[in-house]
């Protein structure tokens, strides 16, 4: 079937030319949200089975295991009653390419709530998460696609992640980029970008790099507020307008900075 992308669709992840999105469909007079795998180059889409849950909210991630060469979809569900976001209560995985597509439960001994989109690097999914309802404590979760195990990545001393911080693939390693502005939003007043790179995942060691923006940056951005979309293989940081239905893209190249 063709990709049914409309205002009800939400992109949940992309990797190796495929997209995972959730789409609102009407089945027998009832509305339900289901995940789909899409190939933008062909325009084809594969509907996936509905996640088996009684929980109200669902968050899905498309992941890839380069050793077994398998695509999987990780879904987490949680209730939405009361105030604030709750920790996830169910974790399910679906392996693509099997004869029968079905969800199966997996265990997670690290209670958390996914806060932002993730990125899959060398068989591991990384995403920002909150470790408790209304706690205000953020962390980075690592999901090993092959073993299907969760772990936390410790942040470096002085490392603060905002809601607008972006996790990126920096030369095969996990990177986190944000601005020097409060909450990480990029404006014409932003003077520099901060990049943290996970140099040793086992020891949780990070390196910090600061890149000064050119004086003309204020004139280029003007009054716009920007989010970091990601990083390209040519070391460009791609930005888009904050809270806008109009797609406007900016980019800036970060030089090989000096560790601070």
From TrEMBL:
<dbReference type="Pfam" id="PF08268">
    <property type="entry name" value="FBA_3"/>
</dbReference>
<dbReference type="InterPro" id="IPR017451">
    <property type="entry name" value="F-box-assoc_interact_dom"/>
</dbReference>
<feature type="domain" description="F-box associated beta-propeller type 3">
    <location>
        <begin position="2"/>
        <end position="243"/>
    </location>
</feature>
<dbReference type="InterPro" id="IPR013187">
    <property type="entry name" value="F-box-assoc_dom_typ3"/>
</dbReference>
<protein>
    <recommendedName>
        <fullName>F-box associated beta-propeller type 3 domain-containing protein</fullName>
    </recommendedName>
</protein>
């Amino acid at each position: 079937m063709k990709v049914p992308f409309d205002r009800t669709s939400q992109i949940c992840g992309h990797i190796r030319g495929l997209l995972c999105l959730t789409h609102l469909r009407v089945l027998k007079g009832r509305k339900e949200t289901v995940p789909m795998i899409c190939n933008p180059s062909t325009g084809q889409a594969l509907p996936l089975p509905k996640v088996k849950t009684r929980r109200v909210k669902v968050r899905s991630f498309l992941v890839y295991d380069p050793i077994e060469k398998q695509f999987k979809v990780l879904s987490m569900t949680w209730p939405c009653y009361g105030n604030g976001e709750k920790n996830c209560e169910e974790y399910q995985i679906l392996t693509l390419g099997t004869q029968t597509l079905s969800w199966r439960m997996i265990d997670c001994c690290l209670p958390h709530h996914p806060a932002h989109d993730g990125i899959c690097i060398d068989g591991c999914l990384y995403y920002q998460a909150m470790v408790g309802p209304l706690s205000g404590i953020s962390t980075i979760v690592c999901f090993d696609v092959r073993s299907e195990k969760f772990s936390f990545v410790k942040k470096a001393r002085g490392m603060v992640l905002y809601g607008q911080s972006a996790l990126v693939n920096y030369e095969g390693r996990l990177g986190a980029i944000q601005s020097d502005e409060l909450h990480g939003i990029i404006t014409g007043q932003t003077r520099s970008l901060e990049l943290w790179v996970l140099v040793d995942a086992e020891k949780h060691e990070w390196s910090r790099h600061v890149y000064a923006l050119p004086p003309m940056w204020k004139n280029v951005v003007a009054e716009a507020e920007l989010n970091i979309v990601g990083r390209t293989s040519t070391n460009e940081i791609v930005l888009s307008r904050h809270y806008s239905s109009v797609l406007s893209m900016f980019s800036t190249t970060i030089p090989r900075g000096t560790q601070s």
